[in-house]
Write the structure tokens for this entry.
Amino acid sequence: MRKRRAKKRILLPDPRFNDQLVTRFVNNLMWDGKKSVAFKVFYDAIDIVEQKKTDEEKSGLEIWKDGLSNVMPHVEVRSRRVGGATFQIPMQIRPDRKVSMAIKWMISYARKRNEKTMAQRLASEILAAAKEEGAAVKKRVDTHKMAEANKAFSHFRF
């Protein structure tokens, strides 16, 4: 740890919704530097969510934000060696890490779905997350259960 910590780069908001969180999501969705393709996939997914939505007063972007907040974990377990034994210690998660974990989980579980296009997979995962179901929400629940199970080791926190 000789050098300074890297500065947080300021992201430009996306063109359609003027939201930095959307840009952050698209940056994680992007493969091989193809940002325009990633934006198209995301916008198509939001349009599909708009068509399939059941709640009339919410927009597709609001449903996506609800789904993302439903996927965000609040605690996680971290490994720590104490006297030759490794313990899983539950820790609170920093707000920016919560968001990045939620984004990564949502994208990875959308990729594992079996719809035809990535936009349809992402839309399905967004709708499932908004209803508090789906694989990404299950991952959050499992993370919380793991932290709850290891609560006895929380006095080892560093």
Helices lie at 20-29, 35-52, 60-71, 95-111, 118-130, 135-149. The first strand starts at residue 75 and ends at 82.
